[in-house]
């Protein structure tokens, strides 16, 4: 059980984090105080061209030295600082959250990596797998993840979430069952500009994990949600599938439905299942993903987890509960529940 | 002979109070255990193979068959079998032949792997009420898809799919040739696979014309002897399989004794009547992976690239890199046959001592293909000792796309695994060409039994998947997370890449 929220303003007008905090806290029944987190897009306009790397350090000595060295080896750090926090009675500060604004160097990349994004992906995998005492938990541009073990309100107050303004917000209230309640295991999970909040359990995890690991991703965070971020990066960025097609691969229609489709559509869906069978996600889940150009929400193929959508003008809300959406926007107009596996996509208006 | 004879293995007795003297045991025993002398039925236990035909046919349940206790002085090293093999070879100077699979008492890895089930946090899925998808496509897959946007803004597929076999259930019947087994056995299985929406292999015995109606469910085999292979044969198959090796006898060819080559077999195989059909150890046109690639391409070219081509190899120590080489050829599937695979006839020393277990082979092949980034482009079919739906589920969780069953299908037809298939005397009409014995197997009844088995396993697989919260076979494939090892050593756990029970 977990509570999730996704919000986008399609005109990119920004909203501060206070109402997200309130909405998430409303779903405390869906959490256990073991983890909560927020992702916000559009929060670092002054560093919009740099990758904002958020790192949990166990201490600022040895692990930080290693991360600094690795980053300097691959590019330039234009700014770094401890992420401002305020002590909360409900949170034991086990890690120091830190942020770097980083740009991979073109020269260093030449001949070794195809793009800046490959370099950043490599650094994230390298640190998370091999640098003891450091975990990069956010690595996108002009966005950031803020998470910890604790109740949603405490985590929000800890990071002073109301001080950030974003046009996409994702939030998550955690009730861990199959993995430890540690800071890195709280949602959202992120790689580059992909961030994922998830309610459920992925029974195909073993298959999905071995699939993405074949492409160099390393699953190190002890939880099944991590793999969703990598699947989106692999299919969405590396294979360049449109978001609808990524969802089609992850939660495809049943064969019986495919058999009833017109020939061309059936062929397309068959091709997706044959090619991306190992990316198919099984088990109960409701997921919202933040991306470069909007948000995507969807559930598993038989809808074993709830998901509600609300709309109001340029604003689109996706959440586990209608009540949470109503806290965010009491004026919300159009509320509905999507069908199982149906992608809900909110894109920016150009 | 100074050696004398070895003691009989079985002891057959008739409860004379029960016996009604109907003589069915005499009629049914093709090995000649029973004979009538005056008003008495005499028994020659020495000839018994424990095929159980007599026991099953006796109307009075009067026959008892027991394994005869060892008459030798017991010895941990010089077992009865070791001594008897020596005695037999001292007498004959020949290779000892055997039928069916490996008969050594080695630990079975399947039995030390445990499957998972859901409790509370993710719901188990009820296959009676929710869709459960076992449909499996065998063949080449693209590594990624390309789409294009049409002028109207629709997304269209830009990648063309290679031909694949569509299986309604991931269970196929492996290659058992006409010659090794009877036409009635093949017919039974052909009807069964057509009914259950799956496929069977022809073996290296050609395709008998009575099987033509089921050709869309047949995978035709090209083995080193090339028996029965011509363009018509290739075109009739739904897929083509090149057999490099077989689990029961890796590294050697096949041998069908002349007694089994009757007129029909000789016509179908395109060899002279009564001649031994000896397929060579290697294909005489394949001495390297490049040669194999050429054969795959020629077969594809000959059939206009419309049929998937599989390559079957025995599970040997180096199986993973070999399979990886095959994966990077134009092959559509690699078939791995483990050391418990059955056979009509093999030198016993091969059957029992060469090769590796299928479980380890699947795990290492799947991993190697992943390491090389080609796992998604080729299918893995596993075979060799799959006895139940649990073995099937575990094979898929280890990384197979589908399995071939052989012995299990024969057992469904009546086989009692007596291991005498090479003698042309199979009392169940399975591994024989003797018309009187063949006629004992009714293809209709046989087909019903085999399709019942496939149905039964399919239902059980659905239940196992549902219990694990999985509703599509894709999510079981290679999902080693849903397996735990019990009483397996650390080295094996590492090869299988599964955690120990409790972890
Ligand atoms: S089949 Fe049974 S009843 Fe008939 S003769 Fe043999 S032992 Fe007696
Ligand atoms: S097929 Fe016939 S001969 Fe071979 S093991 Fe089975 S019962 Fe015995």
TrEMBL record, chain B:
Which residues does UniProt call coiled coil? none
Q: Where is the 4Fe-4S ferredoxin-type domain?
A: 10-38, 39-68
Instruction: Give the reactions, separated by semicolons, that this protein catalyses.
Output: 2 L-glutamate + NADP(+) = L-glutamine + 2-oxoglutarate + NADPH + H(+)
Entries under InterPro entries matching the protein? 4Fe4S_Fe-S-bd (IPR017896), 4Fe4S_Fe_S_CS (IPR017900), Aldolase_TIM (IPR013785), GltB (IPR024188), GltB_archl_type (IPR043578), Glu_synthdom (IPR002932)
Q: Which cofactor does this sequence's record say it needs?
A: FMN
The UniProt record gives the binding positions of [4Fe-4S] cluster 1 as 19, 22, 25, 58
Q: Which GO terms describe its molecular function?
A: 4 iron, 4 sulfur cluster binding; glutamate synthase (NADPH) activity; metal ion binding
Top-level EC class: oxidoreductase
Q: What UniProt keywords are attached to this protein's entry? A: 4Fe-4S, Amino-acid biosynthesis, Flavoprotein, FMN, Glutamate biosynthesis, Iron, Iron-sulfur, Metal-binding, NADP, Oxidoreductase
Q: What is its EC number?
A: 1.4.1.13
The record's listing under PROSITE patterns reads: 4FE4S_FER_1 (PS00198), 4FE4S_FER_2 (PS51379)
* Binding sites annotated in the UniProt record for [4Fe-4S] cluster 2: 29, 48, 51, 54
List this protein's GO terms for biological process. Answer: glutamate biosynthetic process
Is Signal included in the keywords of this UniProt record?
Answer: no
* SUPFAM superfamilies attached to this UniProt entry: 4Fe-4S ferredoxins, FMN-linked oxidoreductases
Give the family from UniProt. Belongs to the glutamate synthase family.
* PANTHER family in UniProt: ARCHAEAL-TYPE GLUTAMATE SYNTHASE [NADPH]
Instruction: Please identify the protein, giving its name as recorded.
Output: Archaeal glutamate synthase [NADPH]
Question: Where does this protein come from, organism-wise?
Answer: Methanosarcina horonobensis HB-1 = JCM 15518
């Amino acid at each position: 059980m977990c509570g999730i929220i996704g919000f986008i303003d399609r005109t990119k007008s920004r909203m501060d984090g206070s109402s997200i905090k309130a909405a998430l806290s409303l779903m405390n029944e869906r959490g256990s105080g073991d983890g909560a987190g927020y992702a916000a897009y559009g929060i670092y306009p002054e560093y919009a061209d740099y990758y904002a790397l958020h790192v949990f350090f166990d201490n600022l000595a040895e692990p930080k030295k290693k991360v600094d060295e690795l980053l300097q080896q691959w590019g330039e750090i234009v700014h770094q600082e401890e992420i401002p926090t305020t002590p909360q009675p409900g949170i034991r500060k086990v890690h120091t959250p830190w942020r770097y604004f980083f740009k991979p160097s073109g020269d260093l990349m030449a001949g070794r990596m195809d793009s800046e994004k490959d370099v950043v992906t490599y650094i994230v995998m390298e640190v998370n797998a091999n640098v003891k005492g450091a975990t990069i938990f956010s690595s996108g541009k002009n966005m950031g993840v803020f998470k910890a073990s604790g109740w949603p309100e405490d985590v929000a107050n800890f990071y002073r979430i109301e001080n950030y303004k974003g046009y996409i917000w994702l939030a998550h209230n955690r009730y861990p069952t199959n993995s430890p309640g540690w800071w890195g295991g709280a949602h959202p999970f992120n790689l580059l500009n992909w961030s994922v909040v998830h309610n459920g359990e992925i029974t195909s995890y073993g298959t999905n994990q071995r699939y993405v690991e074949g492409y160099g991703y390393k699953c190190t965070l002890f939880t099944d949600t991590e793999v969703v971020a990598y699947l989106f990066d692999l299919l969405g960025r590396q294979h360049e599938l449109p978001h609808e097609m990524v969802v089609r691969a992850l939660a495809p229609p049943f064969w019986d439905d495919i058999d009833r489709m017109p020939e061309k559509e059936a062929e397309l869906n068959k091709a997706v299942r044959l090619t991306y069978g190992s990316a198919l996600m099984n088990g109960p889940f409701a997921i919202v993903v933040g991306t470069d150009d909007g948000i995507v929400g969807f559930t598993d193929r038989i809808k074993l987890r709830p998901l509600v959508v609300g709309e109001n003008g340029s604003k689109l809300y996706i959440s586990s509960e209608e009540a949470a959406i109503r806290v965010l926007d009491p004026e919300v107009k159009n509320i509905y529940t999507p069908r199982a596996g149906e992608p809900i996509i909110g894109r920016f208006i150009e | 002979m100074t050696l004398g004879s070895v003691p009989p293995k079985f002891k057959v007795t008739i409860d004379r109070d029960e016996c009604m003297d109907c003589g069915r045991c005499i009629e049914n025993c093709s090995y000649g255990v029973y004979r009538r002398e005056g008003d008495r039925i005499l028994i020659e236990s020495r000839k018994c193979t424990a095929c159980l035909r007599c026991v099953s046919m006796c109307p009075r349940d009067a026959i008892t068959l027991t394994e005869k206790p060892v008459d030798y002085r017991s010895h941990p090293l010089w077992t009865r079998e070791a001594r008897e093999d020596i005695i037999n070879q001292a007498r004959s100077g020949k290779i000892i032949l055997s039928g069916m699979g490996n008969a050594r008492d080695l630990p079975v890895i399947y039995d030390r792997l445990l499957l998972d089930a859901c409790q509370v946090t993710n719901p188990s899925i009820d296959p009676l009420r929710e869709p459960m998808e076992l449909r499996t496509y065998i063949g080449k897959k693209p590594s990624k898809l390309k789409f294009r946007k049409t002028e109207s803004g629709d997304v269209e597929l830009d990648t063309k799919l290679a031909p694949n076999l569509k299986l309604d259930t991931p269970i196929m019947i492996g290659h058992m040739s006409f010659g090794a087994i009877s036409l009635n056995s093949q017919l039974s299985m052909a009807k069964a696979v057509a009914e259950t929406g799956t496929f069977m292999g022809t073996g290296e015995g050609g395709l008998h014309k009575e099987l033509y109606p089921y050709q869309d469910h047949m995978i035709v085999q090209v083995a080193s002897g090339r028996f029965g292979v011509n363009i018509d044969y290739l075109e009739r198959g739904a897929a083509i399989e090149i057999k490099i090796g077989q689990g029961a006898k890796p590294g050697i060819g096949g041998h069908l004794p002349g007694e089994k080559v009757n007129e029909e077999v000789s016509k179908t195989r395109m060899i002279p009547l009564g001649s031994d059909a000896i397929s060579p150890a290697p294909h005489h046109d394949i001495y390297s992976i490049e040669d194999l690639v050429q054969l795959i391409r020629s077969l594809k070219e000959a059939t206009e690239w419309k049929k998937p081509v599989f390559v079957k190899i025995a599970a040997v120590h180096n199986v993973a890199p070999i399979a990886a080489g095959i994966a990077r050829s134009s092959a559509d599937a690699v078939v791995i046959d483990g050391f418990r695979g059955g056979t009509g006839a093999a030198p016993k020393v091969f059957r029992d001592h060469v090769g590796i277990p299928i479980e380890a082979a699947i795990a290492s092949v799947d991993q190697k293909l992943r390491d090389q980034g080609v796992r998604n482009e080729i299918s893995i079919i596993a075979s060799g000792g799959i006895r139940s739906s649990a073995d099937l589920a575990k094979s898929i969780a280890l990384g197979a796309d589908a399995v071939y069953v052989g012995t299990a299908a024969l057992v469904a037809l009546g086989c009692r695994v007596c291991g005498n298939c090479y003698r042309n005397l199979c009392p169940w009409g399975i591994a024989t060409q003797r018309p009187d014995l063949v006629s004992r197997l009714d293809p209709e009844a046989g087909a019903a039994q085999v399709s019942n088995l496939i149905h039964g396993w399919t239902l059980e697989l659905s239940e196992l998947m549902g219990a694990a919260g999985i509703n599509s076979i894709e999510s079981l494939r290679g999902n080693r997370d849903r397996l735990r090892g019990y009483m397996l050593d650390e080295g094996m756990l590492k090869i299988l890449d599964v955690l120990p029970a409790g972890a």
